[in-house]
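Example (one chain per record):
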Amino acid sequence: MSSGISISDLVKVRARHPEAIAEAAARRVRRPLVGDSGRLMIVAADHPARGALAVGGHKLAMANRTELLERLCVALSRPGVDGVLATADILEDLLLLGALDNKVVMGSMNRGGLAGASFELDDRFTGHRPQDIARLGFDAGKLLLRIDYSDEGSLATMVSTARAIDEMAERRLPIFVEPFISRRIDGKVTNDLSAEAVTKSIAITSGLAGTSAYTWLKVPVTEDADDMAAVMETSMLPAVLLGGDVGKSPRDQEGAYEKWRKALSLPTVQGLVVGRALLYPAEGSVEQAVDTAVGLL
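Predicted structure:
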């Protein structure tokens, strides 16, 4: 790592030299959002700020920050990995470690819809603001938009999403919107991955804000991957596929790879944004999981 700072040094630097974060951001070597390959491979690690720490059957798998950072640094070092999506705390750790040169850095913007909370669908913007992303020289932002027709919190999230898109566009910064049609089942918010629901979520999101010039979609693969061709005809906005929690077994992991492979062939799909499936694979190492995903592109 170019900075010479190790993970064990992070607390000392943060305690004594907080200005080092801004200095590291200022000297970071930047790159275009989409490189020569024309594809994007982004590793996601914004789950902890929503209190979503589980991977497979392990409830607190993502809670150990040293381990998470080690896994992220390994993933970012692999050929074909373009960048990372995370909240400020994680991105700033990676900045201090010197791990973000020539990488796409995506700030996670709304993390207020805490997993399991009564207010989960009123998803406030408690993470990066557009001005933070611009100030730090980051490359894009990301937000989550879950729409539950029976929960008024979704309307508040839609409105704040539209304004965030406007503010990012004013700064000519790309914003990746992750839309779902959701509903509560036995009190738990569940995303509907049927073709009709994913189609509706794309149509609604594409029409948000005063411009869509800088809007990207971050979409799930439908339950039946064969439905994706028709679903992705809903919008001309560029899209990336999201990974999500692919399950507990190697078989589940292989099934997810196969779904991604099919969907990546579609014209508007530009790449992958995957987190837990690569950082905490059901089988094999982080290197193997990341290399397999890169190979799908």
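Caption: The mean pLDDT is 94.
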